[in-house]
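User: Show me a protein chain along with its predicted structure.
Assistant: Here is one chain, sequence first, then structure tokens.
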Amino acid sequence: MQYTPSDLKPRERYKMLASFVLPRPIAWVTTTGPTGVVNAAPFSFFNVFCEDPPLCMFAANRRPDGRPKDTQINIERSGEFVVNLTDEPLAHAMHESSGDFPPDIGEPDYLNLKLAPSTRIAVPRLADAPFAMECRTWKTIDVNGDRMLIMGEGIQFHIRDDLWDHDAMRVHMERYHPIGRMFADRYCRTDDRVVFPPAAGANKAPA
């Protein structure tokens, strides 16, 4: 089967991309509203893109009625946010935070999620997240007036102590159980893992 994107409705393109680009990491983004309410919202059109500087990007689409989401509004005002990653113990709360919350009700407070202060920005992080990255806005790109690509530069990293080998600079994979986004209401666990030996390439001298 073949499809030309322009022949599909936007929703059909979304369903196709979200069905095959799997699994996707989830940015659980915390921001702070003008009255101090802390917002936490998950975004799965997300990834990191380089390490120098450390940049991440996620797409914040508008609400069905055309209004921008609280995350975008808060970032445009303050230029700060935290990308928190999600593991299995936090997965259900992360999913619940994707529901519709008015701006005066913060998801962390409503869902009894613990917050911790950030080091270099005013926005707090989720205290139990396995990894959190304090970000300042690096660039934003308006896409067709109905979503914003938000690029952030990571300026401080937080790692849960039990997950990281400081000497080897490696994660303890047997302790880290991230959740991936599939499509619709589906997620996946990531414990079924495959390890390959180093790739030889075509230029390796014969033994």
